[in-house]
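Entry 12.
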Amino acid sequence: MKLVIDKIIPREICHFADDSLLVTSCANKVFAEHADGRENVSFSVPYPKWWQRLGALFRLTRRALRLDKMNVAPVAGGFCILHQGKIWRYDNATRTLTQTGQLSNCRNVLHQSICVLDGGNTLYFGEYGANRARAAVPVWHSSDAGKTWTKIFSFPAKKIKHIHGCFYDPFEDKIWTITGDFENECWLLCSDREFKNLEWVGTGQQEFRACNLFFTHDAIHWVMDSQLQDSHHVQLDRKTRTVQEKTAFPGPGWYHKKLEDGFFLVSTAVEIGPGVHEKNAHVFVTRDFEKWESAAAFPHDGLPLRYFKFGVIAFADGAQSSNKFYLFGEALKGIEGKIALCHLEPTATGGGGQ
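Predicted 3D structure (tokens):
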């Protein structure tokens, strides 16, 4: 399969896309565009400090200072936003933005890592940050579309560095919370919605370091997110909870996307470490978890990785198909700081597999 870019959108993040709604952002401004006749919406989330407002004027300083980072999730009656350590709710009816929470020790979370259930009324997410002191890390929960929040669970101090995401498993009706990053910190926590009945899955080692999960009837799949050693596709058997390492990848697997017509996408990142074998970020595609093809490769743009970001490709939440899906890039030639509307098409040989 080959990834074809149909359109470049000059905004930085695509948070959500389906047939009726497209949610994007640039710096601190959010855009919600409707295809079903509803009025389009745009609003700004405030930067708390003067130097942030100044630095946000230019893409390169937004990139260096991480001033582009934001999470926006459509919820019942509005949007939930994480920005610069604060939780906000935008109300569609009143067109107002209200702060509803304050994060403990992070600025925002990974893309695609907020679990939204029950028509946008129930939300879960876990904090993602440097956490050098290895303080306790909370999972946040809302049962009223982000109007109020509780810390429904907390990983104890020294247990993990941070949380990579909370994901709903429709086959077991469970929430899977995945963590990282280093020795004895990489776990999959399977729980009920109340976080009362807990099952710790894994060994804490890099094999269980993931940024996202694919759920199927018999197994749970992920591509390891490790710059420390070679990353593989890992398959977890539902019944036995045993894992099998399968296809190797040229770098850490960050973002995953299940498309509605049976394709599964994984993006690999350009980072610093012995597990990174290329200066290209890839989009890999599979339909059966056996054969993976590189559908696209984007070279890193050459600016220092430590200061101007790793080379990363991310996907938008929401129901999309191989005929129309969205991705966005950081520090990659062609898609740096931009959104791409894409589709997949077969190649003449079906080559490019790993």
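Annotation: Residues 15-258 form a domain with the Methylamine Dehydrogenase; Chain H fold (CATH 2.130.10.10). The chain has a mean pLDDT of 96.
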